[in-house]
């Protein structure tokens, strides 16, 4: 199948390698046209050190490379996704299907990434997400992801296209839950990093991860997601991988903030897109819009955007009133 991957960051590159190995005719579109000679000649992308670009992979800086593609994978970071979609839209085939792998919620509009892609391209969109570090996928480390779309046929098309002996793809009809899980886990990876940077322990991180799942599900249900999705690959799966690994730039940024750096300094030091920073603002606004209580997301927002110290944010969370773990505990 002819496929374009629009975005040559670590994730777009890893997926391009996967699809070439699956025998597809793949073009990788890059924003960084200055890197094209290196990618073409040395078969190397500085965004994904250690990975070899297959000989069959074509590289392009031209939006027109999506012409004739049945699948177009949108793999840019969240902040430029709308402009990148506008760039490719005029060249899309009539029956093109979009795959959204970007994790985030658009600042301002509070739209999910697949909603932005659908708005700008007018095409159906499948969400591909899950616990998947690019560095590991590129090396064929066994990985499981979720192809989520209301349309089963399209979810199965994406499943069949990406699936391999080392890359398992499950399907789901719940794109809302899958995308909220993906966006919010980046905020929590930042929080887990802050917790580590402050010198808190494993207990703290485990509490953070499990309590935030409740927050995610609360928000998700208010937006029509299924609660089960948050217990799956796109929820708890992605939370585990991002909150416990040094591959996660969100967690690395959080550690620096916990150690006393400002959000800006931390992002500069990490040097790659820290989606959790943008997602924290959108998630906070979304919780207000939906009237859903999200104390951990609110604390993250206040640290990142209102200069609340990380230590004070932890104390504020710990000093909240007593709660039952189950909101509908059923006690008389
Ligand atoms: N890295 C991973 O393991 C991974 C896994 C799953 C999902 N994701 C998601 O994929 C998305 C991309 O992340 P990444 O890790 O590939 O990014 P990255 O940090 O490796 O690279 C960022 C990319 O953005 C491009 N870019 C910068 N400014 C741009 C602009 N104005 N317009 C278009 N492109 C621009 C850069 O050229 C670069 O290719 C994110 O939403 C991320 O959450 C990443």
- CATH superfamily placement of the largest domain: NAD(P)-binding Rossmann-like Domain
How far apart, in Å, are the first and last alpha carbons?
A: 59 Å
Q: Uncertain segments of ≥5 residues (pLDDT<50)?
A: none
* Structural Rg: 20 Å
Q: What class do helices, strands and sheet pairing give?
A: alpha/beta
Bound molecules: nicotinamide-adenine-dinucleotide
Which second-level CATH architecture of the largest domain applies?
Answer: 3-Layer(aba) Sandwich
H/E order of the elements?
EHEHEEHEHEHEHEHHHHHHHH
Report helical residue fraction.
40-55%
Strand order of the largest sheet: 3-2-1-4-5-6-7-8
What does the largest sheet look like?
8 strands, mixed
What would the principal axes of the Cα set say about the shape? Answer: globular
Let me know the number of strands. 8
State the gist of this model.
The protein is of the alpha/beta class and 332 residues long. It is 48% helix and 11% strand.
């Amino acid at each position: 199948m002819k496929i374009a991957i629009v975005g040559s960051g670590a994730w777009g590159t890893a997926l391009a390698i996967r699809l070439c190995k699956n025998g597809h005719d793949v073009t990788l579109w890059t924003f960084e046209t200055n890197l094209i000679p290196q990618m073409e000649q040395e078969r190397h992308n500085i965004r994904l050190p250690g990975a070899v670009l297959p000989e069959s992979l074509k590289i392009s800086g031209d939006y027109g490379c999506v012409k004739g593609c049945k699948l177009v994978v949108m793999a840019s970071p969240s902040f430029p996704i709308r402009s990148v979609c506008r760039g490719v839209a005029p060249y899309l085939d009539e029956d093109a299907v979009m795959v959204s792998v970007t994790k985030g919620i658009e600042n301002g509009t509070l739209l999910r990434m697949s909603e932005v892609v659908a708005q700008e391209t007018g095409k159906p969109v499948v969400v591909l997400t899950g616990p998947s570090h690019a560095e590991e996928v590129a090396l064929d480390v066994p990985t499981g992801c979720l192809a989520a779309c209301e349309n089963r046929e399209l979810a199965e098309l994406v499943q069949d296209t990406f699936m391999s002996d080392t890359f398992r793809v499950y399907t789901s009809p719940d794109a809302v839950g899958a995308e909220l899980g993906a966006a919010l886990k980046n905020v929590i990876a930042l929080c887990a990093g802050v917790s580590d940077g402050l010198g808190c322990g494993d207990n703290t991180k485990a509490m953070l991860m499990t309590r935030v799942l409740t927050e995610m599900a609360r928000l998700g249900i208010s937006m029509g997601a299924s609660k089960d999705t948050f217990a799956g690959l796109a929820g708890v799966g992605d939370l585990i991988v991002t909150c416990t690994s040094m591959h996660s730039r969100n967690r690395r940024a959080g550690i620096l903030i916990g150690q006393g750096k400002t959000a800006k300094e931390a992002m500069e030091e990490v040097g790659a897109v820290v989606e959790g920073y943008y997602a924290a603002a959108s998630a906070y606004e979304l919780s207000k819009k939906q009237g859903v209580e999200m104390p951990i997301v609110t604390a993250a927002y206040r640290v990142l955007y209102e200069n609340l110290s990380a230590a004070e944010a932890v104390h504020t969370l710990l000093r909240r009133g007593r709660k039952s773990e189950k909101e509908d505990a059923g006690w008389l």
